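Hi Y.,

Following your request, here is the sequence exactly as I used it, all 355 residues.
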Amino acid sequence: MKILLVINSLQIGGAETQVIADANMLVKNNEVYIYYSGKGDLVENLNDNVLIIKAKKNNLLYITIDLLRITKKYNIDFVFAHMYWAQKSIFLSTLFNRNLKTYFFDHGLNLWKGKIHIMLTHIIAFKAEAIIVVSEAKRKIKIEKENFKYSKVQLIHNCFKQSVEIDESKIILPDIQDKFTIGFVGRFSSVKQLDILIDVAKILLKSTNNFRFILVGDGPEMSEIKNQIKDNNLEMYFITTGFVLDPLSYMRTFNVFILPSIREDLSVALMEAGSVGLPSIAFDVGGNKEIIIDGETGFIIPPFNLDIFAAKILEFIKNEDLVIVFGINAKKRIFDKFSSKKRIDNLNELIYIQK
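Below is the corresponding structure, written out as tokens. Let me know if you'd prefer a different format.
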């Protein structure tokens, strides 16, 4: 089968990482193409057999016509259009290429969508075989808020990055002297709410100083977060690494993983944390509780209660056995429910059920 994956960019991000993983899995048994127009930081992670097509212009009209040309030129059988930009861009192809089977993949909760955007989504999704969501939380939004029929919306979970070899030689951290490490991996953006960790640290300091936050990643909020840490004289309690190529290596240095996001669809970072045996703490938003079983693999806490957030961290700090047991449970859950095998089996079902 000839499969075209379409996405706006291939910069660092959860959706983009999943697209790369999908392309690399699908190319083992199919002819796979990937089309994008923006940044391409993740291109180097693609299998050499995936044909990469970068748009010459970042213009919606141009890209819409270009995709029509490409789907016909390469006799594409299936298009996986990831996110709203790609879904709009492929619409013309679905109208003028009758043999083309198109699936829309949604990432993020898209709570920003108003009536006009919802109406447009219905129009462009008219010819799509189905809309694929990655969490029950998102399926509920598509049905209850966007008024799609249940039969039109299918759930296929993301999968975690399964790393056989973890290169711990890449880790360069100051001596933390056996302090309890509270880790985050992701983009420094307002959605992640990393600024609240300043207040969480202050609450923890009322009971203990046996902790360090390790924040792995980069993004637009990086400078502001570092300034807040300095302004509050908390430099000795925070380590920021900047961008790293192998975040799983750093996760191995954590005792617990935290995700303070204001919203999430289905966090790949939470999956990866569980895959290396880490318990996690996250707010009850989006699909977080589909990954974390509260009281078994970590804690799901009310948004956005910082006292409870700090209390759960303190509970782990005081109970090493709890960290170990929850970590074992987390690893089993991730491998059972969110494996790459499950993901590719579900994608293949989309393809070969139409064959």
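The chain has a mean pLDDT of 91.

Thanks again,
Q.
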